[in-house]
Amino acid sequence: MNNTAESNDILKGLCTGQPLAVLATDAGTGPYASLVAVAVTRDLRQLFFTTLRATRKWANLAGNHHVSLLIDNRRNQVTDFSRAAAATILGITEELSGTELENGRAIFLGRHPHLAEFTASPSCALFRVQISSIFLVTRFQNVMEFHFSP
Amino acid sequence: MNHPSTLVIDLVELTAADLPRAGGKAVALGRLASTGTPIPPGLCVTTTAYDCYLDDTGLRQRLPLLLERKPFSEMRWEELWDLGLRVRSLFLNTTLPYGLAADLTGHLAPRFADRPVTVRSTAPVEDSATASFAGLHDSFVNVRGLPAILDRLRLVWASLWSDRALLYRQELGLDPAASAMAVIVQELVIGDRSGVAFSRCPGRPKLVAIEAVWGLNQGLVDGDVEPDRLLLDHADGRIVERYTPQRLQACRAITDGVALQPLPVTEREQSPLSDDVAVLVMSLLRQAEENFGAPQDLEWTLRGKELFALQSRPITTGDVPDNGGDRAWYLSLHKSLATLQNLRHTIEDELLPAMEHDAESLAAVDLQQLSDEELVREIETRQGILDRWEERYREMCIPMAHGIRLFGQLYNDRLRPADPFAFLGLLAGDTGLLAAQRNRALQELADLVRSDPLLTDRLRDGHPPVSGSPFATALAGFMSRYGDLSWTLGETAEHSRGLMSLLLELAKSPPTQQTIRNQTDEADYLASFTMEEQSFAHEALEIGRASYRLRDNDNLYIGNLTARLREARAEATRRLAEHDKPELAARMAPVRELVARRPTPAGSSEEDAGNLPGTRLQVRQIVGQPAGPGLVRGRARVIRQPADLRAFQSGEILVCDAVDPNMTFVAPLAGGIVERRGGMLIHGAIIAREYGLPCVTGVPGATELIDTGNLITVDGYLGIVTVG
Question: What CA–CA distances, in Å, run from B304 to B65, B247, B277?
Answer without folding.
Answer: 51, 21, 11
